[in-house]
Every structure is written in structure tokens, then in C-alpha cells.
Amino acid sequence: MMLWRRSSDEGDDEWADLISVGDCLDVGPDNLLAAGNYADDLGTLPILQTTQRYVDTMHDLDALINKDRDLDHHRPEYQIIVDCNALSVDIDDEILTVHNFIRDNYRYKFPELESLVLHPIDYARLVKKIGNETDLTLVDLEGLVPSAMILVISITASTTGGKPLSEEVLRKTIDACDRALALDSSKTKVLDFLEGRMGFVAPNLSAVVGSAILLAGIQLGRRRGYRDEIRKTIEKWQELPPAKRAKLLPVPDCKPAKKKRGGRRLRKMKQRYAMTDERKKTNRMKFGVPEE
């Protein structure tokens, strides 16, 4: 296979050359490392779990996970909440990086899987469960994805053109799956903690939106005025519009009608139907004199 590549430099005309890439494209899964197409080693990827900020935040989180007290913006607990919020974003970025590593390696075994399962954690669970197995009827995927998706994955795997991975590549891919699942577990713990503490940090928003996890003994009745206001506004919107009242007829006016101003059109109409001078003379009668 040949590939055209174009480039341009200052003062030089555009040039094109042919590069043969057939050797690079026909690389099997066993010689990926030698060809340089295999994804980087898992150890070269950034490891969030080994950073001091991650270790300290998770340690403080475990210490506060069962505590229930009001927060002060100047106390360490409020700072832990801020750190957890930032850590959740870093965990998402780390999961995406590990997912790209898993996908780049496992596409040689099951290239269609990445288009069928888009969620990184579901993809990692399936890769860890399937491994190098070619017959997915022997693999129990129940509980990992919906039943309809299991059928689609099994049918697609029976017609895939992928080849089994080497032991080294498979081991590194499974290790990456374990790292992704561990990050997801840490993210769940962080989000559960933040969700429980939202009653202190943002009581009005928590009351409006609701929270799946609320700490016992939280009294927010005196701080829920905004919720009542929104509820009344929504109820007002749902009320039926007022009934349309019938318009009463005006009281008849017994006074004579006022003269209304005419115009040129009215004057011309009067002239058209007015009595002529000859008609006036014909109708003229003298008193005491018989008509001729």
C-alpha cells in the first residue's frame, strides 16, 4: 500500500513523495512490540494512584466518610471536599487514558468491540472477562452488559477477523483493565462522599434536585425557603386560566343620534339623489289657486 505525503517549507515549492507502508500495516499481534505499533508499556502511563495528592485525599476521605457535622469554610473538611471535587476530574482523565491503552491493544483481538461498547468501564470489564477466548458462548457475560448486547457481541465475535494476543500483551491489557476498575471504584467513593456532603455545602440545590445519599440527622427545614418558592411558582404555572367572561351589551342611549361628519363621498351621493330645480318648480303650488 502506498501513501502520499505532502509538506511545504519556506522558499521551497510543495513536494510530494511516496512512502511504502505495507510492511507497517501487515503486523500481527505477536510482533507488535518489535514493529513499534503496539501501545506504550503500561508502566509508562501516568499513574494517578501513586501521586501524593491522591493518597492524601483518599486517606482523609476514608477518615471522614462516617462523620456527620456542620462544615466550616476554614476547616480542613471543607478543603477535603474541594480536593475531592478536583480529584474526580483527574480520575476521569486517567480512566480515559487507560481506556485508550486497552482499546489500542485489544483491537487486534476484537476490533468490533470498541464500536459496540462505548463506555470505558464496561469495555474494561468485557475485555477482562473475554481475554483470548474465541468462543464467547463459553464466557458468562451476564450482568456486565444487557442481554440484547450480549447476543450482538457473541454474533460479532464469531465473525471477527481478530487474532489472539500474545501472553505478554494480554497480561498488560488485563492489568490496565484492573487499573481502570480500581479508578472507577475510587471515583464512586468520592462521588458518594460529595453527594452526602452536598447537604452542607449547597442545601438549597440539594433540596431542589434531591440526593440519593443523605446523612442522618441533617435538619434543613430552616434553609429550604428557596424550594418552597420554586414549588409555589410551579403550582402557579399549572393553574387553569381564569374563565372568560361574557361581554355585556352597552345600555341603549335614548338621546338623538348626533350628527356625524360627512365627507366628499357623502356630499356627492346627496347631490346624485337630490331634487333638481325643475322638479322643485313642478311641485310648487300656490295657495288658493287650483293646479293647471
UniProtKB/TrEMBL annotation:
Protein's recorded name: NOSIC domain-containing protein
UniProt record similarity statement: Belongs to the PRP31 family.
InterPro entries, alphabetized: Nop_dom, Nop_dom_sf, NOSIC, Prp31, Prp31_C
Entry GO MF terms: RNA binding
Presence of keyword Membrane: yes
Residues in NOSIC domain copies: 80-132
Record keyword Ribonucleoprotein present: yes
GO biological process: spliceosomal tri-snRNP complex assembly
Organism: Rhododendron simsii (Sims's rhododendron)
SUPFAM superfamilies per record: Nop domain
